[in-house]
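ok so heres the complex, two chains, lmk if somethin looks off
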Amino acid sequence: MKAPTIVRTLAALCALSLGAVSAAGEPAQPQASAVPIGESIYRFGALPGGEPLRGERASGVPVEGASAACVNCHRRSGLGAAEGRGFIPPITGQFLFHPRVSSRDDSDLPYVDGARINRDPFTEETLARAIRQGIGAEGKPLSVLMPHYALDDAEMAALVDYLKHLTKTQVPGVSDSVLQFATIITPDADPVKAKAMLSVLDDYFDEKNAAARAVSPRLRSYHKMMFRATRKWRLHVWKLTGPANTWEAQLQEHLAAEPVFAVLSGIGGKNWAPVHHFCEQAELPCLFPNVDLPVVAENDFYALYFSRGVLLEAGLIAHQLQEQPHWSAVRRLVQVYRADDIGAAAATTLAGESHRSGLEIVRRVLRAEAGSGLSSALKDIGPGDDLVLWLRPKDLAALGNHPVKADGVWMSGLMGALEHAPLPSAWRSGTHMAYPFDLPDKRRIRVDYPLGWFRIRKVPVLDLQVQADTYLACGLLSETLNHMVDTFVRDYLIERIESMLEHRIITGYYPRLTLAPGQRFASKGGYMVHFAEPTGAKLMAEGDWTVP
Amino acid sequence: MVRGFSVSVWLLASTAPFVGVATADATRDAASAMPQDGVTITTVNYTIPPVHLVRETGQSVLLTQELDDGRPVIMNFIFTTCETTCPLSSQTFAQFQSRLGPEDRRVHMVSISIDPEHDTPQRLRAYANKFHAGPQWQHYTGTLRDSLAAQQAFGAYRGDKMGHTPLTLLRAAPGEPWTRIEGFVTPDQLLHHYRRLLAAR
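and the predicted structre for the whole thing:
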């Protein structure tokens, strides 16, 4: 059946009812301008005409609207989830209507935790009964988590039609023998970091493929299932060129020419937004790129990041500034950054979070070329001022050996090269550095894993943080794919990473990684540090791990 | 942390076909019903850990003082981005609250985040508003360490937030044992146990 469509206003309403406002307070992109009824019920809990979906659980607790939407439990893929000590079952047509089989060996169903295959298949009638009355295919009550929904026949038909077509297992970039991935490099990325990232990806793929067998046979028994999951990995490097407003079109061309299952890692410079939006539009997972200014839109689905980067640093500085005993006496907060760099966005975030009456927030924007204008920007800084440096190493090195007499000096660790920041010695002990990673001493064992691997594989260490993050991204993908066995579905990949990430112990530069539906930044906090000695890379933490 | 255990154990099976606790492995091929559909009730003594938590208002408080303020306590563990178990648990609290009516001022309802790094006071406020939490119902976050200590002290820690199971704890007054309800308790069952605990004093 051809699903009728709902007008634009309903889609906008759905977006609102989902609370589609990003953490940064910016409205999220509205949903597709016209959403078929079945999808609207499933994903947004919205009925035709904008009425909310209503249901009631067996315990007498009502649910309504977005909270009642099927997607909350059964997920966007429809493949369900592990939850507590039980499972939310898959509810795609493939699983619902599959004839009874006594063992997985007799079925062509992909492997999904919690799939119940040894039961009568649903019919359209028993499925409608399950949705309206919470009664399963064999006449037994479903879990108390499953609401009983009030749907009329047309709405039910639309929903069942949606389930029938939900999650095609045949996705681009997946064949019986090869999984295709891409990595994306923007033209403004640091070339050394880009090379560092690629060296890890190339070697990781080589190692992966050395272990993989040539062609995976069809599944015949359970023990062959893991075997079947061993496909070769192929990497496509999508190197963008020219101005940022052409990148999305370039990416579309790349994807059409080289269909991939997901984007792995990647590296950006000042502007990652076009890549983020492309992945969201193309419904393409974009896993843990190396970017210091990600897009904050936690209701977007496909882009996962290690952290909020310089925006997290801004939060850390704002938090620490306000903890200072002299905070109430600070008259001016002066932020210095280059015109075309990511410090501008960080400065905006910091200004928003440091607002207080009587505080003047000043921006000193230097022209784009490094080396110019720095000394005049700092000339009038003195007591009563706090100074924030959103500067790259070249500018830091040019600060000179006469530090300003500000009440406090703060800097971005990410932009300034972390513990390798070339801060002149006279500035080192008095400058607070935002450090959105675990401390070097505390992460040593976790970083020994990639370091050992780089040594064995003879991968030159060009930028340890970028390479450790890239290696971590590869490891997370590999581990998640192992658990997905042969269920190669893009949405499911994201869902599995969301739920599995917290189990990961070897988390490189980060003390802990967690995600969830609506969480897109895996590491949430950081430290404030300063250099412990006039030279060298030793850092001193100024407090505990802080989540701003 | 658990001093005494299992004064009484019984099962409520009025609405559920599947009662008791099963491991993930045992449910692997028969899991269309969640195994927690039954409710298990035990009576347990807990030692409240001396941790500071942060209310949704941003105020830092001692957990011991929050729980020992003299009022009966009803407590659960939630996180704001949870889309399955926690919303049901919070909706049950909301229904419990409205069934109590004006009597709700006598009780202290406590919801502690098990994802404190994400659940800022601001996010907790939004979550509390979604469930129309009254002034007697507070939501708490804090450092990861303190949240973990609270979860572990009440036997609520399941390794990670995705592994959490529905749990409600009730206590009539400071110093008394806790009633531990595992599984999806209904608002009516909750009200029943609450009233019985108070009547027994």
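quick notes: DSSP finds 19 helices and 17 strands in chain A. thats all i got rn
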